[in-house]
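Quick one: structure for this chain?
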Amino acid sequence: MTSTFQLPEALERRRELGPTWGAWLDVLPGRVHELADEWELTFDGDAMHGFGSVVVPVREASGRASVLKVSFDGDQEGLHEALGLQHWDGNGTVRMYRADPRRRALVLERLDSGRDLDALPVLEACEVVAAMYERLHVPALPRLQRLSTYIDRWTERLALLPADSAVPHRLVEQAVSLGRAFVADPDTDAVMIHGDLHFQNVLAADREPWLVIDPKPMAGDAHYEIAPMLWNRWEEAVATGDVRFALRRRFHTIVDAAGLDEDRARHWVVVRELHNVLWVIEDAATMSRPLSAEDRDDITVAVTIAKAVQD
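Got it. Here's what it folds into:
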């Protein structure tokens, strides 16, 4: 085993997010080396990273090219990544070879990290993702976290936003009403969902043209999946000169290709976007600061998407 592993500099900047992140980053290099020793992995390239994980190209003792992924201990939404990947068993997803859930560590099939769905025209990419839904949305496993639990918590916090918050109160009331209805609906927890499926979480592969990565498996609703496909590749939508029309084209492409219920999909988009607004406002309040220009831009994006799917 070589000793060339080094944390990506951009991941080191997560220390700014608080002591929990700092503590994880302090132990991460040792954890990566410990896992590599135990699992007889040889480092085979520069480490990459997501928001809360490091991904290291490795070679197994057999010579097979894989990656070692180690995730942030505090990522509750990704808690059951190994369980989901084990159940999907490579059917549309990256294949998992080994896991240590306690240390949030996985050995995964190596894909083409340099080519994701950003490489395709946006509507073609939407069709690729829509085709993945049927393969991913199998009956929910009983051990998974339930989407309704999250929606209940976030919706009741949304309901507490004052009427003069930096978002149209009509949209807040609509999202609260829809969110409460979803919490009471058993179909909200019916199938296993990815939770964060968008263009950058689908990579080119040898085994299939495209495979899904980085799931945050929950017992959820297939219609919940669409919103990230609207807020990602945002500048492309803006560049069309008619952002709402561009967003509606994406929305209808996915709904039609996946055979989803249009109204239910629309309602989930509204709920997710207003929860995004909630978190922006809450984060500013937690840090005792006014909303920044970037915060207001994020709120504008969320409100624009919520309105676009209803026009």
